[in-house]
Design brief:
With about 400 residues, the protein is an alpha/beta fold. It has three domains: about 5-150, NAD(P)-binding Rossmann-like Domain (Rossmann fold, 3-Layer(aba) Sandwich), CATH 3.40.50; about 155-275 and about 310-315, no CATH class; about 325-390, Rna Polymerase Sigma Factor, Chain: A, CATH 1.10.1740. Helices cover about 45% and strands about 15% of the residues. It has 18 helices and eleven strands. Strands 4-3-2-1-5-6-7 form a seven-stranded parallel beta sheet, with helices on both faces. Strands 9-8-10-11 form a four-stranded mixed beta sheet, with helices on one face. Strand 1, helix 1 and strand 2 form a beta-alpha-beta unit. The structure holds nicotinamide-adenine-dinucleotide and magnesium ion. Magnesium ion (MG) binds near residues 153, 154, 155 and 230. Magnesium ion binds near residues 153, 154, 155 and 230.
């Protein structure tokens, strides 16, 4: 019997973070929680640290450190309290950390996730934005350190499961892959009258039909930018060029994605829409562990429907494909502009249909350039945020 694997969860208080802890708590012999992190919810973080006996608690917002210390004491948690963005990187590279769950939302997750890859960890990657803005950098550092990145995003996890085990060393084409087919639920406005979209509220946009997620990704699902980001994420994770990636709308979210091979075979991964499945897969790979997920009953599901995405009504998907084809800084610019526009929508500053407009004008205004280094990527991100704010 080997010792339990030390686990760090970046973004433990979020939707993916909590689902991860739900899976982990079912397997105390396999995983031991080393560090949990949060942005500013010190109380919530302290409760999780107490419940899961974490050794370190990290709060990214430094002004919340004393609150965190008080809350840890009040909850009887033994965790050592740390604060600030550099502490996120410190726990992501701890010697005892075997697995790092990257579940911070947005570009804020880039540095600690990249550091975990650079130090050769098993990285369970939910934080798609970091792969979108720095795909080449991740690929280079993964090869240099020997880190294993197992995607948690359900579509990419499905692709990972449907690809041959040696796809990374052989390459996709050499593995006989013709296309990667990403499924999209279509979000809450799939069948909405286009004239009503300008007036939808954040609450309507966050009411996803199949998945219960954080607010930012819920809005992304409603605009289809989530699928756009996932197209770029698939390029970063699997090395597939834009021409090899297709999106198909599948409202039931039972087929999580598919790999089409040269000989006409199409392999898919199916399951209930429950993030605990890809989380458990990424944590235990290549083993399979119990995840607490309801069994898939196909007869009860009844039917599986498919349709082409409507990029006229949902321009974000087209903008993401354009950014992937443009390459360089464009994906980082797209992502940063999207983060600003989505937050402005959630704050009631702009309407829903302004989101793609802000992103498109930011892409037009931003300077092109390479995204080879972390500095390149961070500069593109900062410039795009400033440009996007000017459009609001
Ligand atoms: P969430 O908003 O529920 O949680 C985000 C977590 O990140 C929280 O713990 C928060 O404290 C932390 N955080 C936020 N801003 C931070 C900052 N500036 N610095 C440090 N920490 C910060 O988000 P979520 O829905 O769990 O999504 C997390 C990531 O996983 C996103 O990249 C999302 O796209 C991806 N993802 C989520 C789902 C899902 O079902 N929720 C599915 C696929 C992929
Ligand atoms: Mg997804």
């Amino acid at each position: 019997m080997t010792a339990p694997a030390g686990l760090v969860i970046l973004g433990a208080t979020g939707s993916v973070g909590r689902s991860t802890l739900d899976v982990v708590a079912r397997h105390p012999d396999r995983f031991s929680v080393l560090a949990l992190t949060a942005h500013s919810d010190a109380e919530g973080l302290a409760r999780l640290c107490a419940a899961h006996d974490a050794a370190y608690a990290v709060i990214a917002d430094e002004s919340r450190l004393s609150t965190l210390k008080d809350a840890l004491r009040a909850n009887g948690a033994r965790a050592e309290a740390l604060a600030g963005p550099s502490a996120l990187e410190d726990v992501a590279t701890l010697d005892d950390a075997e697995i790092v769950m990257a579940a911070i939302v947005g570009a804020a997750g880039l540095r600690p996730t990249l550091r975990a890859v650079m130090s050769g960890k098993r990285v369970a990657l939910a934080n798609k934005e970091s792969m979108v803005i720095a795909g080449d950098l991740f690929d280079r550092e993964r090869r240099a350190s020997g880190a294993v990145i197992v995607p948690v995003d359900s579509e990419h996890n499905a692709l990972f499961q449907s690809l041959p085990a040696d796809f990374q060393s052989r390459g996709l084409r050499e593995s006989g892959v013709d296309r990667l087919l990403l499924t999209a639920s279509g979000g809450p406005f799939l069948d909405a009258d286009p004239d009503t979209l300008a007036g939808v509220t954040p609450e309507q946009a966050c009411a996803h039909p199949n998945w219960d997620m954080g607010r930012k990704i819920s809005v992304d699902s409603a605009t289809l930018m989530n699928k756009g980001l996932e197209v770029i994420e698939a390029n970063g994770l699997f090395g597939a060029p834009a021409e090899m990636i297709e999106v198909v709308v599948h409202p039931q979210s039972i087929i999580h994605s598919l790999v089409a091979y040269r000989d006409g075979s199409v392999l898919a991964q199916l399951g209930m829409p429950d993030m605990r499945t890809p989380i458990a897969h990424a944590l235990a790979w290549p083993d399979r562990i119990e995840a607490g997920v309801e069994r898939l009953d196909l007869a009860r599901a009844g039917r599986l429907d498919f349709q082409a995405p409507d990029t006229h009504r949902f321009p974000c998907l087209r903008l993401a494909f354009d950014a992937l084809r443009a390459g360089g800084r464009a994906p980082a610019v797209l992502n940063a502009a999207n983060e600003i526009a989505v937050q402005a929508f959630l704050d009631g500053e702009i309407g829903f249909t302004r989101i793609p407009a802000v992103i498109e004008s930011t892409l037009t205004a931003a300077a092109p350039g390479p995204a080879d280094t972390l500095d390149d990527v961070l500069a593109a991100d900062a410039e795009a945020r400033a440009l996007a704010r000017e459009q609001l």
